[in-house]
Amino acid sequence: MYHKPVLLKECLEGLSIKEDGIYIDATYGGGGHAKEIASRLKGGRVIAFDQDTDALNNIEQDLKNITVIHANFRYMTRYLKEQGIAKADGILADLGLSSHQIDTPGRGFSTRFNAPLDMRMNRNSPLTAAEVLNTYPVARLQKIFSSYGELTNAATLARLIGNARQRSKIHTTSDLLPAIESCVPRQGSQKYLAQVFQALRIEVNKELEALKDLLMQSETVLKPGGRLAVISYHSLEDRLVKNFMRYGNFEGVPNKDIYGIDICPFRPVTKKPIEPGAEEVAENSRSRSAKLRIAEKQLQDEE
């Protein structure tokens, strides 16, 4: 299987699907979410996005009611306009990596393989993880590992990389891991390395910037009463999603009108994120860190 959809039942329920509705799947992947949404439609459509050519090569030819667009979801409104769509009834984004991406050694997403440090979700993008490691100033590397990996020893890590690349370029996993070995804790080493790779991946793909763009566009794309469902896998993503759904901004600061009443384009449907149950985690261990948040577009005067 290319990818097993996470929290599938919860996503479908959260979107409150209408048979004739228009739904956006921002992260097509293996198509699990999109196909299940489409199976519940009569006259409706699913517009799906994926920037990874591997996902597009995996698309079945007989998809019904689904249009898949090869693009980053941050360009959603541009492509919806080309499709003649102004408003949608629901938007779903599963922000995690697909199992295919993790398990394909040449993609460079996993510490399990000695592979080129690529990490590009869109293989046409010029920036790779190797280029980040070999060309970014040490101070910038420190900021990336601190901000995107939330590593407390980011300064030491960045310095080790800076020293190592002076001796020889860092191209593969086997080049990187020995270079940073002295700052990897003995206990929790896999978690630490996962945070290192997470930081590099976020930088290469500009993931947080893309997520912000998607969330901001959802305010205009969704009809009043439309649903926004986002599955995140780490605190950086989840914080942005939570703040946006609660306050309409990413800083978590309430907006108030002149009467002191909170103004927010969305209403959270659940107070706490929905997480996979024990059965799903047992069947798909990669779902264990998933958090689903759902919000509804507030009924407001049409723009």
Short description:
This protein is an alpha/beta fold and about 300 residues long. It has helices at about 10-15, 30-40, 55, 75-80, 100-105, 130-135, 140-145, 155-165, 175-180, 190-205, 205-220, 235-245, 280-285, and strands at about 20-25, 45-50, 65-70, 90-95, 220-230, 255, 260-265, 265-270, 290-295. It has 2 domains: about 10-100 and about 205-295, Vaccinia Virus protein VP39 (Rossmann fold, 3-Layer(aba) Sandwich); about 105-205, DNA polymerase, domain 1, CATH 1.10.150.
- What's the CATH architecture of the largest domain? 3-Layer(aba) Sandwich
Structural class, from helix and strand content? alpha/beta
Q: What's the mean pLDDT score?
A: 94
What is the succession of H and E elements? HEHEHEHEHHHHHHHEHEEEHE
- What is the domain total for the residues? 2
Q: Tell me the span between the first and last alpha carbons.
A: 43 Å
Helix content range of the residues, please?
40-55%
What does this structure look like?
This protein has helices at 8-15, 32-39, 53-57, 76-82, 99-103, 129-135, 138-147, 154-167, 173-180, 189-205, 207-221, 235-247, 278-283, and strands spanning 22-25, 45-50, 66-70, 88-94, 222-232, 255-256, 262-263, 266-268, 291-297. By secondary structure, it is of the alpha/beta class. It has two domains: 8-100 and 207-297, Vaccinia Virus protein VP39 (Rossmann fold, 3-Layer(aba) Sandwich); 104-205, Orthogonal Bundle (DNA polymerase, domain 1), CATH 1.10.150. The strands form two sheets. It has a seven-stranded mixed sheet, with helices on both faces. Strands 6-7 form a two-stranded antiparallel ribbon. The protein starts with 7 loop residues before the first helix and ends in a 6-residue tail after the last strand.
